[in-house]
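Review form for a predicted model. The reviewer records the input and the model, then writes brief findings.
Reviewer: anonymous (R2)
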Amino acid sequence: MGFLTSRLVRRIRPGFAATLEVEDDWRRYWEESNERARRAEGPLWVALGDSTAQGIGASAPDRGYVGQLLGRLRERESAAWRVVNLSVTGARLADVVRGQLPRLEDLGGADLVTCAAGANDLIRFGFSRARQALHALIDGLPSEAVLGTCPQGLWPKRTLELNRIIGAEAPAAGLRIAEVWAHTGPPWSGKYAGDGFHPNETGYADWCAAFAAAIGLDGP
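Model under review:
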């Protein structure tokens, strides 16, 4: 988040500061996990995005939707799936395009690529630039990558605008869509961290379900 927005949110939502206190720990967890994944063998999944891919709000980094989906991949496909999580807390769509897509290319071929971003664009100034960044993201993701829609519970008009772009352009670009919007409606009780913004691990189970459906994993 930008400084002014972050300061305002921290003042209005005391739980927000507490949630973000784990940011460095979650980032270090994924950096260490990424190094192990690079050295290992097995199908490679590369996750792009923001704090939701980091698992901010869950009780542990691997209890966000990325960790939950990794467990399902390993269980259902009986393969040694590994994940390199390139997400960055606070990333906007343009940050994913500029900072994460090039790192994806450096990894070579991936068996699965997922991306969920846009929530930070919805709550910040400069939303007009988000449309252009989303077009660039859709153009830059490899064919068969999975792009998540923006969740419910944020600025509805802006959310629907970005989701309309995803729905109209992603299939034509050869991308699959994870219907995060459809999986994150009310009731919301018990699904958010103390900041009232990030999902907790129960909420992330809904995100996991959306991505699981997009890649053909059936069941809970």
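Findings: The chain has one domain: 3-214.
Further findings: Residues 23-39 form the longest helix (17 residues).
Recommendation: see findings above.
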